[in-house]
Specification:
CATH topology of the largest domain: BirA Bifunctional Protein, domain 2
CATH superfamily of the largest domain: Bira Bifunctional Protein, Domain 2
CATH architecture of the largest domain: 2-Layer Sandwich
Radius of gyration: 28 Å
Number of domains: 2
Low-confidence stretches: none
Helix content: 25-40%
Largest sheet: 9 strands, mixed
Strand content: 15-25%
């Protein structure tokens, strides 16, 4: 028996109600804030990701699905969405549009990592980017939008975590302070962090191994090393968040796992059995578009894992609205009635009334059992007599009451809520 590859999953019909609910709320929030949809290729030039995400990140070093195509090109399945959005922004001259340019996407991403609850090797992201403005008020808007999206789903017991990791001017001083601090704890670091200490010390704060997390708790805070412009930007942002009524937790360990971030970084986390598990996060990446060959362009964004959101909806017992489904099942008895049933089904669907048509050689009794199992509101029954007289039997499956009605009146009756 073939099985789905490890780290992937089938989203079965019974689960779709959660996914469509999250997607509908994502689209609705984007429309409220003026974001437009962009759909991106599933794979890109490998250099796009290695340059944007950072050569020393775990994603580039360990997690990317990279292959060579028949033309000798090195391509990588998309491990995150921001780099692709920035590539599209440059390729299609979107800098000529009124700024900031607001874009959103809903797409699968691919990372070779250890599968765990709410995180798979193929998972799905909802993300959005605001490109072309360095105003801290835009940071506040992007954060507020993330918060309002998650709250609109019905999720509660959430916390907003916030930090600033500075810019090219002030970060070198912070990197030096980190190296000095960790120099006295090298023997306590995991093997990966020992390598990171020289190549990418900021990544030390992002390690998920308990001994390294304990060291990170006492590490220097990036907010203590900000230059004056970064201090002013962060101070303004915090003031705007207070105006919006968004409480936040200062988290000096928050750096995010991608090298392109500058200044603002944030995450929204739920309380799950006393532990934290990020629902989504983002931040500024003011240098990324310039590093990809464009003019220096400030930008920031947010991304959330849809699997993890669905997991938290279930954990919190949030009831989601059902998906629309046909309210009518058409059953028949006899060959002549079968032809009339098929024609009637087509007529009702053309009128916008959803229909499930009986098929196969089941008896009428078996067809009605099927209608009951499908939880439809009405069964429409055509027998030989109904086929001759142009009538149908309309059965209310909830009350078991039924009546004979002219076929010409059926469409109007089914369109009425109390039919």
């Amino acid at each position: 028996m073939y099985q789905a590859p490890r780290g992937t999953s089938d989203i079965l019909p019974g689960e779709q109600v959660y996914w469509r609910y999250v997607e509908q709320q994502a689209v609705a929030i984007c429309q409220l804030y003026g974001y437009e949809r962009i759909d991106l290729p599933a794979f890109e030039d490998t250099r796009l990701f290695s340059r944007s995400i950072g050569e020393e990140t775990d994603i580039v070093q360990k997690e990317m699905y990279t292959f060579e195509d028949k033309g000798g090109n090195r391509l990588t399945l998309r491990p995150e969405g921001t780099a692709s959005v920035c590539r599209a922004f440059l390729e299609h001259g979107m800098h000529n549009l009124p700024g900031p340019v607001r874009l959103y996407y809903i797409a699968p991403v691919f990372r070779y990592e250890r599968p765990q609850a709410g995180r798979y090797r193929q998972h799905h992201q909802f993300g959005y980017e605001a490109i072309g403005d360095d105003d801290p008020a835009l940071d506040a808007e992007v954060i507020d939008m993330a918060w309002q999206f998650l709250v609109s789903l019905g999720l509660s017991r959430l916390s907003l975590h916030l930090n600033s990791i500075g810019c090219k001017e002030c970060r070198p001083g912070y990197m030096a302070a980190l190296k000095d601090y960790y120099a006295g704890h090298i023997s306590d670091l995991c093997p990966d962090c020992r390598a990171r200490l020289q190549r990418s010390p900021l990544r030390l704060l992002d390690c998920k191994k308990p001994p390294c997390q304990q060291l990170a708790d006492s590490a220097p805070a990036s907010s203590d090393y900000l230059c004056l412009p970064c201090q002013a930007h962060f101070s303004s942002l915090k003031g705007y968040l207070e105006l919006l009524g968004l409480a936040f937790v200062m988290d000096h360990r928050l750096v995010r796992g991608l090298d392109y971030y500058t200044r603002t970084v944030f995450e929204v986390q739920p309380e799950v059995d006393g532990a934290q598990s990020t629902l989504g996060g983002g931040g500024r990446y003011d240098n990324l578009i310039g590093e990809l060959g464009g003019k220096p362009t400030p930008a920031l964004g947010f991304a959330a894992g849809m699997e993890r959101i669905v997991l938290n909806l279930k954990r919190q017992g949030i009831a989601v609205p059902p998906l629309p489904r046909p309210r009518v099942f058409i059953a028949y008895a006899g060959d002549e009635a079968r032809g009339e049933a098929i024609k009637l089904g087509a007529t009702l669907r053309q009128a916008g009334i959803g229909v499930i048509q009986a098929s196969g050689g089941k008896t009428l009794k078996a067809q009605l059992r099927q209608a009951n199992a499908l939880d439809v509101r009405y069964a429409v029954i055509i027998g030989e007599e109904e086929a001759r007289t142009g009538t149908v039997v309309l059965r209310d499956m909830a009350t078991s009451q039924q009546k004979s009605v002219p076929r010409s009146q059926l469409q109007q009756l089914l369109a009425e809520p109390a039919a």
